[in-house]
Amino acid sequence: MSRRFERHRRHPCSEAPLSTDAPEEPEPPASPAAPEAAGPRELQGVSNRALSILTAAAGFLCAALAAIGEIATGAVRTAAFAAAIVIALGFAGWLLYQLRPSRTTDRRTRMRRIAAVLVPILVVTAASVPVFHWVDRTPDCQDPIELTVLVPEDGAYGFEQAIADFNGSDTTGSDCRRANITTYSAPWPQVWKAFEAGWAPVDSDEGPADFDPLRDVGPEPDLWVAESQTQVELAGQAMVAAGGDRVIEPDSSRPLGWTPLVMAVPGPVFESEYEDEQRSVLPLGDLARELRDELGMLRSDPTVSYTALTALRSLYDERATTSGTEVEKLLASSVAQTGLAIPGSDTDLMCDMALREPEAALITTERALSSYNRGEPLGANCPLEDTGRAALSPVYLQGAGGLDYQAVRPGWGDPGEAERAEVADALSTWLAGDETSPLEAFGIRGNEHNGGVLGGDIEFDLEFEDDTEPLATDEPDALLEQYGDNRVPTNVLLAIDHSQSMDVVDGQERSRFDLAVEGVRTALGRLDPKDRAGMWTFPAEGGDTYVEVLGIAEGRSPDDADLLYERPAVTGIDLNRTIVDGVDAVEAASEEDDVKAMVVLTDGADEDSSSTSAAEVGDYVANSEVSVYVIAVGEASCRSKQFTEMTADSRITCLEADEDQIRSTFDSLFHRLWS
């Protein structure tokens, strides 16, 4: 064999020559025929079909995520858009890859691949657009009608919740909200005063208006929820007296429901004394005398609360064996013993009750008791944090009457009133209800109430009925006059901050001190001959805390306010020590049954130099029988640390007032103190 042939016979992986003499190995037996492998064209078809399905699903997912991003909000919206962008970028990358020049795949094949992916995506996306448009359908809504509703201060929370439920459900046929309802509350005396003024500012001889309904109450209401038909008639008379074409038609009011006056007592007292006989025919005055040895009796201020005003009829009932003067002494003694400040509204009374839980009976309404038992918020100014309260149960007062809530539309004669009237009427109808009223959840008996469950029901007598008529329109003034005659004397010390910051004019026509003097003048004008008043300014020059302008005595007049100008402004402030010394002065000048109060006005702009802390002031006042009212103006705030610590005791009340509200704040406060 030639060497060239031998080289060809070598194993490619070996240098050793192959032997030509070796015997040939037998061929292995033939194996069964294997199936023919799929060719390139068949593999490409399967790949294209799978890729079409996957990319169609990806396209649908991308469209879905984009739609979710349109209708969602917050983190969901962000995540949906991000996922849609990632999928879109991935598909764009694949598309660019397919469009690149390739030596192994011709252009026609690449275009078929792209078409196999794009066509399903376009079909699925086109089909999904109407679906997502239907899901995200947004009706073409017109602007909702703006409606303003005025509700009573007592019970405001329940009315606001019920009106909010109506506002959320009152829509047009295309699910558009028909109205945007704004609800606010105000006490009855302020509401009546606003109607008396025709809801226009009452001009003052100097400076801003003494009373501005828009500022001191709120905007003109399109619907007013009154506590009684009597209020509606009195407001109508006031509007007529104000003149103009603004009117209230008393006959147009719609009854919403009623709530009886009750005497609320702690659970143990109810179980031992009233569980077997829950209804009383005794006038309230006789009940107060009956309870005086074991339980005091508290009520809100009749000059502020319409509930307390209505209760005067039973307190001064001619059938009672207890005189009106004796009744007022009993009530004043209860206030002093429980350590509460004179509560203004029924809501204030309930807040004090929840905070202090005194052993006392309350003159209130079944509705207020329902709110208390259900743990409702007790007014924006109530510092109560824990809603856990010891439940109270009612004793029903036969012949005492109650509140008969009414809805009425004042006529303001302005454009758009007809549209607002339509919504107001719908709201009134909804609140009144048919067989049941939504107000029953908040403790108000509907017009058709027949013993059904009321919210906050703890030992409620749901079968109780009282046909006593509401107060006549001439009764409120007559009852308040009796109240003024019967009440015990009030002794008040007015302490006015005359630090240098109070004399700053700061762009105003008058300084804060000027406005404070006018407030004092207004307060002294409310004095009854049996009341006593004194005046201090603080701080004082040298080491003294205050300057006594007038001692606490009878016979003070509005002109005495000018004496405040005789004391010069002094740097610094000694508020805490002034309050402590003032409490001592009031107690020293008062008799046992007298109402004792101190009113302090300060702007708080100067640092208190006293060594007495705010907490010590609170403790000192708590151990006295003096109610302290702090009027904070200017930079002073009732939310400051000092006033928060000081007012932790309910005998100290903080009132904030802007410069142009100082006079009206004094007027309102002393209307309560001196009636």
UniProtKB/TrEMBL annotation:
Start and end residues of each VWFA domain: 491-669
Region annotation (Disordered) ranges: 1-41
InterPro entries the record matches: VWF_A (IPR002035), vWFA_dom_sf (IPR036465)
Spans through the membrane: 50-69, 75-97, 117-135
SUPFAM superfamilies: vWA-like (SSF53300)
SMART domains xref list: VWA (SM00327)
Source taxon at top rank: Bacteria
Xref: Gene3D superfamilies: von Willebrand factor, type A domain (3.40.50.410)
Coiled coil stretches, renumbered: none
Biased composition (Basic residues): 1-11
Name this polypeptide is given: VWA domain-containing protein
Source species: Glycomyces buryatensis
